């Protein structure tokens, strides 16, 4: 069946090959580049694969080679509101957000998909490395490039209108195919950093938005070990940048309290948690389990997978890990899997250690 497909073209190799595959499959494909920066030069420059003037030009050239119509959509206002401002406010609240996940949720598969459907398109095609089978998301065959974690926030309806042509191949195969197709982006470097932080200095970016506000760094007993210039510069599990000196420099960030601007540190073993409560669950791969469901959970992008039991309670996701995990930060996503199939996703709100809770009780 021939579909009207809107191919989101970032200017990178993945989205170019995805658009080419969709066109080769016989679909009626139109390319669109999302202009996400109010001032493109204020975002990343150079061939980084996201949010640059060069990327728009690369996307247009790829569309010309493929032979499809091409447009640029100005999404700067939506991107600033739903991704950049959300990023800043989450850090201000002591959480650690994932802006790529939020961009997929709010921009590529909400604002863009809504506009595409309104214009009569049947699907949005992207270059994400993920598979779709039976209406559910599955991990890419390329484990190193798998992006199911940052797409797990999508609803079933959004997945139904999504097309992911690259999930069945490796990144090396994508680059080789781009070269065979004559696409100039075949050797273009991937983008790894946050696209709207031009120099990669997240702490500096947050200081510019939130200001410098000195506060204490304390241990678990409340003893002051040092000071910081803004709690928003830290994330749970962080060790570098504490500048405590001496033996205490082997401490890790355990928690961030924005109300009193305090960062609490301690030994690595104090990071261990085995119970997680997460908010705003999205169940794309199964119905919300009322009873504990044996599955696995991933707690950060490209992080390890943990065996667990999970269920929904009073509208929130509860995850109990078989073995404790460290460095679990509020604001990150907890993504549940059955093998390589995404079951659901939610935003981490609370973490705890059951053994400690039982001892305290």
From TrEMBL:
SUPFAM superfamilies: Adenine nucleotide alpha hydrolases-like (SSF52402). InterPro entries: MnmA-like (IPR004506), MnmA-like_C (IPR046885), MnmA-like_central (IPR046884), MnmA-like_central_sf (IPR023382), Rossmann-like_a/b/a_fold (IPR014729). It is found in: Cytoplasm. The record marks 128, 332 as: Interaction with tRNA. It comes from the Bacteria. One of its GO terms (biological process) is tRNA wobble position uridine thiolation. Residues 205-266 form the tRNA-specific 2-thiouridylase MnmA-like central domain. It is an enzyme of class 2 (transferase). GO terms for cellular component: cytoplasm. It catalyses: S-sulfanyl-L-cysteinyl-[protein] + uridine(34) in tRNA + AH2 + ATP = 2-thiouridine(34) in tRNA + L-cysteinyl-[protein] + A + AMP + diphosphate + H(+). Residues 145-147 are annotated as: Interaction with tRNA. GO terms for molecular function: ATP binding; tRNA binding; tRNA-uridine 2-sulfurtransferase activity. Keywords: ATP-binding, Cytoplasm, Disulfide bond, Nucleotide-binding, RNA-binding, Transferase, tRNA processing, tRNA-binding. ATP binds at residues 8-15, 34, 127. Its EC number is 2.8.1.13. The active site is at residues 103, 195. The keyword RNA-binding applies. Residues 274-348 form the tRNA-specific 2-thiouridylase MnmA-like C-terminal domain. NCBIfam families: PRK00143.1, trmU. Belongs to the MnmA/TRMU family. Catalyzes the 2-thiolation of uridine at the wobble position (U34) of tRNA, leading to the formation of s(2)U34. This is tRNA-specific 2-thiouridylase MnmA.
